[in-house]
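Researcher: Here's the sequence for the chain we discussed earlier.
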Amino acid sequence: MIYPTESKPQVWRAVVGFDNRSEMLLFVGRSSEQVRANIESAFNELLDQEEKEKAQSISLQRWNGAPDAGKWMHQTNVPMPNKVLLAKVA
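Model: Thanks. This is the structure I predict for it:
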């Protein structure tokens, strides 16, 4: 049996850690540069104001191993992005 696989798997991700709950996936990409370039926009689009306030760290991780038998390995912590405050328009 033949199993189709991606020619270039997405092997990098950014995960945000919180002080009061489990971590949350922010972005997955093919390179660390691609993930780093999209962290700030993903952070501001995916998290609400309360989550942004409780965010403690962002971990850049790389997949290590075969596609079906590996694990995510921490590479470095990424600086927290600027937290965009959105004001309600009356």
